[in-house]
Design brief:
six-stranded mixed beta sheet; globular; 688 residues; 21% strand; alpha/beta; Immunoglobulin-like; 28% helix
Length: 688
């Protein structure tokens, strides 16, 4: 029987009070040495050597004595799976962002949390919510996309799922979206842009109860993020009321112990360098108040106590790692995240009954292409490649011919002699990802197109057989303009995880109706994009990027944010607002009817955008403020409702240092993408 709301609140307050009493009691039993020991990772020299060869082979912990009464934490990385050993490898985060499915992301978070705990971890660094500001960013694959509202919703969902089993660590705080110069770049950003564009998704995760935040390597307005008191103390801990702990990104995330402890960093990872005895000398010398050490340790202990009973009754062990259930979840995520971008003359889905042979062209067809090989690398026990998937799903009566595509004449011949062609093209860990300086691999992309040989392969193959579909793999938008006109069908599969080959095949053959939608704008030319310099020592981040930048400047992308095709047709009608005028602290409900006019079941992502008319400050033309992924049977119609808090329409007034909701008219637009052509249903309400 569920208690009354007031009773439940009283019980929760009592639990919090009891927890805080225990925190104070445990803290009182610790010496300064014991407290400081908990504020640094405990990696030794031998562990450092092993980690340099194979990162994340086991969880990374901190110092401290368990006999005091509460254990230290043990960190595992993410975000495409629990990294140690042979865990389940899910599609990369941007592929899951393309699914626009918060319920699915919560289940994935739960699976990663379960596997992390089964490996001995209790803190997962799987929630990466840095914004994709420019598609050249090498680690775009690790986040969900370019829009703060969308990224925040997905990150909060994963946070909730993870914390059924372990503590969630949200990273990298903040404005981290250049890879090659990440250790030194100074991001110059005005306060309004910081508050409205680069922080709301972090706050969404904090509001979801995240136990931990990881600071970024870069500087913001001249201060390293791990020392940045404005970010860590003023905003995160004081304004947002975050009662968890802050850890540094590994090694170079903490540059100066005094600046770090004063700025709000609680733990340096993964070993003692700037804290430890140096921090003790700072305290004893009066340069760092001991109350800051107490606060840092209290935050760690508080979260350890908070999670003491989490997962009780669950079974954790080797049988939960890369289990069949998680592999099926990886397949579902891959299917939902693949985006059908072009389907000329309905060439897809392929009809098994009309095919005797299929040519599968491209070196990537037979490759386990899971994403980069940096800190987010996962080594699953098995992987279905696109070639495996097509061979398995096609059926025994269809002959599969594979040509690696290196020789254009051979590839064209294979295409000409087949009934249909599937080209697998794209990028790998050598082209993008976490930058590994010693090997000079990964990093940011300075050329956003495909390798020249792949473009030539596509043109040769499509010239030989027009019944051709191209499947792209990669971690962000790819310049497709040089060859898109020659391609009848195009799919974006991202880095689709351990079951990705099966997902690709099931969509190609129509066993699954594609429902993925782009979480990032696909540009027509690189000249349309905001400035980006992977080697920059300093860079200014403006208020607009992604679709907001495109809308503001009247630019037309090849494929807009939120875009994706289906094997069904969806119709939108009867947009209604529940009121014409609302107060600044009120709510408004928008509803729209969506129907499936096709002959097969499918899933549509219904998107709601809001723009302020006549604002006294520069704003985006419109911004995403709601989305829902819904399933519709053929002929089915559903009413989709969006509850909109008027406070979410506020802008940050830097002069007054406060949020302000303008008395103005606001336009609501609903449709299947951010393109003005797709947002034909519009309504207006006024805030007064």
């Amino acid at each position: 029987m569920t208690g009354l709301p007031g009773m439940n609140e009283s019980i929760e307050r009592a639990r919090v009070d009891e927890r805080e009493h225990r925190v104070r009691e445990l803290l009182s039993r610790m010496s300064l040495d014991e407290k400081i020991a908990r504020m640094s990772g405990n990696m030794g020299v031998a562990d450092m050597v092993v980690s340099a060869i194979r990162y994340n082979i086991k969880p990374y912990g901190t110092g401290g004595d368990k006999a005091i009464g509460v254990d230290t934490f043990r960190f595992t990385d993410g975000p495409r799976g629990a990294a140690p050993n042979h865990c389940a490898c899910f599609p990369v985060s941007i592929a899951r962002g393309a699914a626009w499915d918060v319920e699915l992301e919560e289940r994935i978070g739960s699976a990663i949390g379960m596997e992390s705990r089964s490996l001995g971890g209790d803190l997962s660094g799987s929630v990466c919510v840095n914004l994709l500001r420019h598609p050249g960013w090498g680690r775009a694959q690790e986040t969900y996309g370019e829009d703060s509202f969308h990224v925040g919703a997905m990150g909060a969902a994963q946070t909730t799922g993870l914390q059924r089993h372990v503590m969630a660590c949200v990273k990298h705080f903040a404005a981290n979206s250049i890879e090659r110069s990440r250790f030194r770049v100074d991001v110059r950003i005005d306060e309004r842009t910081l508050r409205e564009v680069y922080l709301p998704h972090f706050k969404r995760c904090v509001d979801a109860g995240a136990a931990c935040v990881m600071s970024a390597y870069n500087k913001v307005n001249g201060e390293y993020c791990g020392h940045n008191g404005h970010l860590l103390r003023d905003i995160l801990k004081e304004e947002w009321g975050f009662d968890g702990f802050v850890i540094s990104d590994f090694i170079l995330g903490c540059r100066d112990g005094e600046e770090a402890i004063l700025g709000g960093l609680d733990v340096e990872m993964p070993f003692t360098w700037r804290f430890g005895r140096k921090l003790k000398r700072l305290v004893e010398g009066g340069r760092a108040p001991e109350k800051l050490v107490d606060d840092a340790v209290a935050r760690i202990v508080r979260q350890k106590l908070r999670f003491e009973g989490v997962g009780a009754g669950q079974s954790y062990g080797p049988e939960r790692i890369a289990c069949r259930e998680h592999e099926e979840l990886a397949l579902e995520a891959a299917c939902k995240g693949i985006v059908l971008l072009k389907n000329e003359n309905s060439i897809l889905p392929l009809n098994r009954g009309g095919l005797k042979s299929i040519a599968v062209i491209g070196e990537l067809a037979g490759m386990a292409n899971l994403g980069d090989k940096g800190s987010s690398r996962v080594r699953p026990p098995r992987v279905v490649t696109p070639l495996d998937g097509i061979s398995n799903v096609a059926g025994g009566d269809i002959r599969i011919i594979h040509d690696p595509g290196a020789n254009l004449r051979s590839a064209a011949k294979a295409a000409r002699e087949a009934d249909a062609v599937v080209v697998i093209a794209g990028l790998t860990w050598r082209d993008e990802g976490e930058y590994i300086p010693i090997l000079n691999i990964g990093g940011d992309r300075e050329n956003l197109g495909l390798p020249r040989k792949q473009e030539e392969m596509i043109k040769a193959v499509t010239g030989a057989n027009r019944r051709c579909a191209v499947v792209l793999e990669g971690g962000s938008a790819i310049t497709v303009a040089p060859w898109i006109a020659d391609v009848p069908a195009l799919m974006m599969a991202w880095y689709p995880g351990m079951a990705g080959g099966t997902a690709i095949a099931e969509i190609l053959f129509g066993d699954v109706n594609p429902g993925g939608r782009l979480p990032a704008t696909f540009h027509a030319s690189e000249s349309q994009l905001v400035n980006f310099d992977p080697r920059a020592d300093s860079i200014r981040y403006g208020y607009l990027h992604g679709y907001r930048h495109f809308d503001h400047n009247g630019l037309k992308p090849v494929f807009p944010f939120g875009y994706g095709l289906s094997y069904s047709q969806y119709e939108y009608s009867n947009l209604a607002l529940d009121r014409e005028t609302v107060g600044r602290s009120g709510r408004i409900v928008a509803s729209v009817e969506v129907s499936n006019a096709g002959d097969r079941a499918g899933e549509e992502v219904v998107q709601l955008y809001v723009g302020c008319r006549g604002s006294r400050v520069e704003r985006a033309v419109r911004e995403l403020k709601g989305f829902q992924r819904i399933r519709l049977e053929p002929g089915e119609k559903r009413t989709v409702r969006f509850d909109l808090d008027v406070s979410d329409l506020a802008f940050y007034d830097s002069e007054k240092d406060e949020w302000e909701t303008e008395d103005a008219a606001y336009e609501v637009a609903v449709g299947p993408s951010s393109s003005p052509d797709d947002l034909r249903l519009r309504g207006v309400f006024r805030v007064s």
